[in-house]
Structures
1.
Amino acid sequence: MVHENMSLKDVYYEVVSIRRVISPNSGFWRQMIEYEKEKTGQTTVKLLPGTKTTIPDVYLTKCKAVRDLNNLKTKYSYLNFQSNL
């Protein structure tokens, strides 16, 4: 994050584009958010209250992307669409 001069949000999207199954726990997110805040004075990821635990807001974008992909797969199923999501 620091060496590449990337935000926490950008780093998450970069890693998830390579390995889609990552899902760091809320403790890890808290530490990384605090670290980003110490280094840059701001944070690019926010924790949202969940039913049992907090979730990072970047998970919402990931969920939307998966939902959109599934909609495309359904719409164009006759093309035998393949994905590694």
Note: The helical segments are 8-18, 26-40, 58-75.
2.
Amino acid sequence: MNTQRPEGKNIADSPFFKRILEKAETYLKHPSKVAQLLNDAFKKATAKKSVGAIAGEVWENLQILSRMIKAAMAGEYKGIPTSTIVGGIAVILYFLMPIDLIPDFIPVLGFLDDATLIAWFMTSIKSELDRFTDWEATQQSAPQAPETHPTSTDIVHNADNSFGTPKYSDRGQGTITETNSEF
């Protein structure tokens, strides 16, 4: 077993990670698979975020990376290199794999290689992340389109529409009669 602290660049250069990159490329054609991947990463990161300071940092980084990939895949955030999206998907795939260079079942070390790879990747795309967070801030502060309210023709009622029919013809419109009957 390798007892040295893993280096993110070394993990990224490994043949193992190269295969993950190839798999990540196939995800570009399947946005629903990317959405599921991001959801799975969120679940795992949520479970791990209380492990310590490193886990908290990984949690933050994964959130930013996930939002960036999601916005790029939806076509909302443009100009991001495809290689960055593929790399981000590959990092998330690696994070989700229980058996990777250091299997996740090994306490602390199993998570350390994931955290190291994520930190290395986030550092290597720092300028892209800065552009994304700037873009994201403008999206949140941009005026929202006015809410559209459904028109009366769009609303579906399940109420008794028999008012005005012979059953109620003895009552004028808007007239409510009380009855003293008990149910």
Note: The chain is about 55% helix and 0% strand.
